[in-house]
Amino acid sequence: MSTTRPYPPGDRGPEPSGASGASEGGVAATGASGEGAGAPSGAAAPPGGPQVRRLSFDDESGVVPLARDFTRQALYAWGWLPAASADQRAAAEDVLLVVSELVTNACLHAEGPDHLRISCDNKVIRVEIADRGTGQPAPRTPHRAGRPGGHGMFIVQRLCLDWGVVRTPGVSGKTVWAELGAPA
């Protein structure tokens, strides 16, 4: 498990370019509608900061496909899809797989997810899943590829630039976050 970034969700700390994930650039979408901020086709994010979308899972069923569809809509809005190359297609598929794995883990181990927050700047897409669970996600070690189950956090670890868990003192639950590089 990564603990290399002690910053709260949405804040990757100071960056040389002056960009910070703390900014909620654009309009955050809430609810299952997915309507919200989107960059023009072909652009990952505007120069003013990251694009952010948020999906609440209150009283929703089928949250894994809902999260994937919501994320896919954001990837279209941010210009990741339709992909112009195999590398860009693979990057978008990696984001969708990480969203599926994190939401599934929240369903299996943490009483279900509360919300999904995704943000995108020109370099990184960040996925955050908030849940009410008290457990600490970690890849199973040793990883046994031939056995069923237990591969989710191993997949997240392999596909992401970084990932971690943030807890807010005095608040139950946690936020599991993962960051993936933008396609070239």
Q: What keywords describe this structure?
A:
single chain, 184 residues, alpha+beta, Heat Shock Protein 90, five-stranded antiparallel β-sheet, 3 helices, 26% helix, disordered N terminus
Reported by name, the CATH topology is Heat Shock Protein 90
Measured by DSSP, the beta-strand proportion falls in: 15-25%
Percent of residues in helices comes to: 25-40%
Low-confidence stretches: 1-10, 12-46
SS-derived structural category: alpha+beta
Using only CA atoms, what is the Rg?
A: 16 Å
Order of helices and strands: EHHEEHEE
Q: On the 0-100 scale, what is the average pLDDT?
A: 78
Largest sheet: 5 strands, antiparallel
Which sequence of strands runs across the widest sheet? 1-2-3-5-4
Number of alpha- plus pi-helical segments: 3
> What's the total count of β strands?
5
CATH class: Alpha Beta
What kind of oligomer do you see?
A: single chain
Keywords: ATP-binding, Kinase, Nucleotide-binding, Serine/threonine-protein kinase, Transferase
Biased composition (Low complexity): 15-32
Protein name: ATP-binding protein
Region (Disordered): 1-56
